[in-house]
Amino acid sequence: MSKDEIAVMTFLKRLFGNGQPDPKLKLVPLYNQIVAKARAPHWYVEGQVPDSLDGRFDMVATILSLVLLRLEEGKAYALDMARLTEVFVDDMDGQLREVGIGDMIVGKHIGQIMSAVGGRLGALRNAMADNNLLDDVIVRNIYRSVAPSPEALAHTHQGLLDVERALGAQLPDMIVEGDAKW
Predict the structure, then answer these.
(1) pTM, full prediction
(2) Is 182 contained in some domain?
(3) pLDDT tens digit sequence for 32-63
(4) How many structural domains compose the chain?
């Protein structure tokens, strides 16, 4: 989300809400980091992730899942995780509307998106505990069951491990604030 979008959301909340800024807005810098990380060219070039709406969604959902897994290590971050998920849903809602999905079926698509994220969370939780499972998780969730070249798969595998390790080296407070360098 851009600064202008945040300003508009804040203005509308104050105009129609209780005058308090929306607490999920503090998670927007982290969400912007997630999107930037997911849109890094190496995923699409060396990793051969399809550079399409689906491919970009798959990478955002995967990086978001890794961040959520890092934050779930501390019970104190449950509310931040929920708010980060709300920011993601708001972004996906806007993206769906931008590509022409109408009001009548946006909710159904959001349900499918959240189901996909939930599936990734479980799969990645298991794969990060046992890296032998990671390639299957990557092929199923990022390449939609169409295996890329071995080099591309190895690149994506290592890239996700690097993200997970970098997140693990950061304090959760810094991650939540969007200040962590990962």
Answers:
(1) 0.86
(2) no
(3) 999 999 999 999 999 999 999 899 999 999 99
(4) 1
